[in-house]
């Protein structure tokens, strides 16, 4: 069984971002976008892809640990703040998003 879903975004033959979801834990492990691709909606597209994979996989919610500066982005995408967290010595925010039922 596949336990992780990983997606890569390319532009002009160059990797400009990637995202990864742990399907067993229902946790977004990474959403990274190169500095020159910020504000191009690459991050939004990658996150929406993870949401869709989780939803189709039967998950009712997904979680993530956001860096402090990325918290507003995730909040705009429907994630709610649960509280402070730590990840690799970084102050983070634990967040969660409830997913709609899959169609069909």
Uncertain segments = none
Percent in helix:
10-25%
Write down the domain tally: 1
Gyration radius from CA atoms, angstroms:
14 Å
Spatial gap, N to C terminus: 23 Å
Named CATH topology: Aminopeptidase
Strand portion: over 45%
So, CATH architecture? 3-Layer(aba) Sandwich
The structure class reads alpha+beta
Numbering strands along the chain, what is their spatial order in the largest sheet? 1-2-3-4-6-5
CATH superfamily: Gcn5-related N-acetyltransferase (GNAT)
Features:
alpha+beta, 6 strands, Aminopeptidase, 6-stranded mixed β-sheet
Précis, in short:
The protein is an alpha+beta fold and 104 residues long. Helices cover 20% and strands 46% of the residues.
What does this molecule look like?
This protein is an alpha+beta fold and 104 residues long. The chain has one domain (4-98): Aminopeptidase, CATH 3.40.630.30. 20% of the residues lie in helices and 46% in strands. Strands 1-2-3-4-6-5 form a six-stranded mixed sheet. Strand 2 and strand 3 (27-33) form a beta hairpin. The mean pLDDT is 90.
Per-chain topology:
Elements: E1 4-11, E2 14-22, E3 27-33, H1 42-56, E4 61-67, H2 71-76, E5 80-87, E6 90-98
